[in-house]
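Recall the central idea of this unit: under ordinary conditions, the amino acid sequence of a chain determines the structure it adopts. In this exercise we apply that idea directly, starting from the sequence alone.
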Amino acid sequence: MCGIVGLHLRDPSLEPRLGELLSAMLGQVVERGPDSAGVAVYGDPRLSPPGRAVVSLLGTSKTEVEAALPGVVALDADATTVVHAGADQVAAALPEATVIGSGEGFAVLKGTGNPVELADAFGLAGVSGWQGVGHTRMATESAVTPEGAHPFSVGPGQCLVHNGSFANHATIRRELRAQGVEFDSQNDSEVGARFVAHQLEQGADLEKALRLLCERFDGFYTLLVSTGDSFAVVRDAIACKPALVAETDAWVAMASEYRALDVLPGIENARIFEPEPEEVYIWRR
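Accordingly, the structure predicted from this sequence is:
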């Protein structure tokens, strides 16, 4: 089933409240995905200091990172370790760790267990920034592991969260592998994320990448895809999986259920709508 929440802030005065608001939204979709959870946060100065490269890792710890990379700052957040260093430097020093996000001004945190407890372990309520994406997972086709949790972030500053299932993910996985794309999990959602990232690498913009996904992928899906300057929503051809968007002058938000939007300031004045099938909606910073 899974739950999606996302918040793109237009009003800078709300940025200190990003984590508080995202935590409240995430708490409203726990029943949709009690197995695991994750968030991507854009612009928090502690997780991703301005002008610094940041890598989010699984399979290591702050102690191990700082031993392997003397002088590098690392932060533990449940199963995730956030490292303030470049991706190449981290990969060379910690080849066994799994990269779950990299880029400037951006961090990914994810783990297994109750989403509310994970949000507390992440310290999410204290995070600031201009954009955040969250997901609660009910596993259907792959193991409940931190690697299988969403968001899937496989390009610089990019992430994807997914409610639904891709019927032909195995075929597309094989095609991408033949083109040199590597995978970290058996999750069908990772195939979608890798496909989008591959299209962006080939020169497509985000709208075109998502239109190509709609053409190529079979199944049921609602997707929220974010980058360092964009926030995008798309649904499958019959709009099987729920999605609502709310928009005000101060923010744009998306969620699987209205109750996750109802926690936002000014929701009573928002324009609220259900995204149309296979129409790509994009908001840019």
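Residues 188-201 form the longest helix (14 residues).
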